[in-house]
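Two quick folds needed for the group meeting slides. Do the first one here.
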Amino acid sequence: MKSYHPNKILILSNEFPPGPGGIGNHAWNLSRSLNKKIAVDVLTVSDYSDAQSCLLFDRKEKINITRFKRYSFSLFTFIHRIILTIKLIKKNNYTHCILTGYFSLITCSLIQIINKRINKIGILHGSELIQPKLLRRFLLINALKNLNVIIAVSQYTDGLLPINILRDQKKYIISNGVNTDLLNFQFSSKSKIKLLGYPCLVTVGSITERKGQINLIRALPEIKKKFPNVHYHCIGLAIEIKDFIDEVEKQNMTASVTIHGMIPNNQLSNIYKQSDILIMLSQNKIKSCVEGFGIAILEANLFGVPALGSKNTGIEDAIVNKKTGLLIDPYSIEEIVEGIEHLFQNKNKYSQDVRTWALDHNWSNISDKYLKVIMDA
């Protein structure tokens, strides 16, 4: 099929700012970048954000954003989403639909019925492919078979794709991008969060089993033997907090750990500027979810901050081992301690390489790759 220029794109996403989440971060930056060249509409939901915050956010954006409502009864929420999706597709002459996140992906079969001419592009982040419940897996597999194009954000995520769904779909791997606007945000001294620690260790991401903050906590007593003034800062929603707090108390590390909660994306630059090492020790032995990439790694890299990340996860695509950080066994206390010691002592040597790596992943470059895929779909 010859390539052609698309007229209008719908991006259907499970997350979107001002709410947290890597999928939302990705969808936002992709829509903003593509909208400079093609008309883009976004259909989404933002959990953990109030209506007023969403309204203020949407007014500043140049893209057309429609948000799902969430009802207390989940079935009503699902039906409302389906109806709104049908209305939007029937009303607009979309040539392409980009689906990102589990719910978005499973609507592919519905979109195929509504309008067979729309080119359907699915973005796979990782965890949406891990569906232990038979019904959810059936819906996902059926939807994936109806996609025209499949894009995985990492080699690791691509490896999770069930072989039996592949038909005539075109398949690509396009890494996550980083929003270089973070470099330009300025804050008054009164609004800045002051981070303690020597070294100052930071994880950006919801506190969950998948993100693996607990692995760093278990290693913290050994880290303190080499760095008595070390401090660990956790940025993100405290979703699965009990086991984390229990482990902090068990290790007697309360004075060396701070939970900051969710911080808006445009304020993360203040955090990264004070960080010595970005920690991303995501669990790779969890059956229900996986780490597909790790956008926070690239964000920290923008500010010259190297990363310590997990082997055998999508983080392997985000870190160039021994050049922009280190890839280690997240369950090995010895490797965690040695990794932190190496990165902290050699931070200046890493700083230029990590900046170059991050800038190579700026959204202008990444969206050009998406645009090429879209035009060839």
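Then this one, please, same format:
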Amino acid sequence: MGEIPSRQVFNHVDYQKPLQPYFQIVSCAKSGDMDKFRQLVTTFEETFRKDKTLSLVQRLRHTVIKFGLKKINISYSKISLQDIRKKLGLESDEETEHIVAKAIRDGVIDAVINHDKQWISSLSLTDVYASNEPQHTLDRRIKFCMQLHNDAVKARVYPPKEDDGKDFGDLDEEKDQKEDDILASLMEEMDDF
């Protein structure tokens, strides 16, 4: 799935030793270092084979590339595809261009590829607080809270408006009497059957 497990999974006392190779793979995936990833897969290949997880670990290659591309996109405003290939340890410029294009399409990185000059240009990060988006979000939340309040007020049951000296205890007694009358009439109807 490409999801990185939390560190707490690996810190459990009973699992620390058996999960050590997996912890190293996860740490490597987060760093985006393909050379270290290949080295770890080779080193622990027998362990992964024994655990029947080798194919899953090998599929993490795409996650390592994704994290590596994110780091490159943040670090460089403009970089050649050859430099990306070298940094990620990919095999060809065509593969690199394909991977970068897919990452752009999937929204992993925010960049543009110049196919003629063989480089990518990272798009500048916009400051969301310079826009009206936070104001619109706050407005939507306030409207939701106000609607919730209004619905709660409408759902409340208020005592009758006329005040003829009765306190709330009298109202409860009246209500109980009405319920008893309704229950008695229902019982009479059932007895008729």
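Slide caption for protein two: Residues 127-156 form one domain.
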